[in-house]
Write a structure and sequence with these properties.
about 130 residues, Immunoglobulin-like, elongated
Length: about 130
Amino acid sequence: MKDKIIFIPAFIKSFFIINITLIFIYGFSVSCKKKEESVLAKPSINLAIDSIVATKTNIVVWEEIYITVYTTGKNLTYKWNRNHGSMLQVDSSTVKYWACPSCIGLNTIECKVSNEFGTVSDTIMINVKAKK
C-alpha cells in the first residue's frame, strides 16, 4: 500500500494558525488582567460598619478571642484579613482569633464589608503578650 498524501489547502492552514494564535493571545490577556479593585464607599444607610469589637484587645499567646463586626446594609459579604496570628470564621460577621509566640506585639485585624453599593472596611488592634 502506498502512503496517501493528504492535501490541505493553504487557506485552511492559515485559518487554523490564526485561530490558535488568537486563542493564546486571548488566554494570556485574560490571565494577566489585574484584579479589579473594590470601590471604597462612603458609609451610608446602604452600607456601613458601625463598629468592630473584640472580646479582649490584650491577650497572651494562644489565648482565643472573638471579633465581631456590626454593620448596616443588605446583601452583605464579609472578608477578614490579619497581619499576624490565626483566624477561623465562626459566621460571616464573627471570627475566632489567636496568636502564636512569633505574633507578640500589636496585630491588625481588618474586615471588609461589600454589597452592590461598594466596600467599606475597618480594623481593630490586638496586643499579644508572651505567657508568664
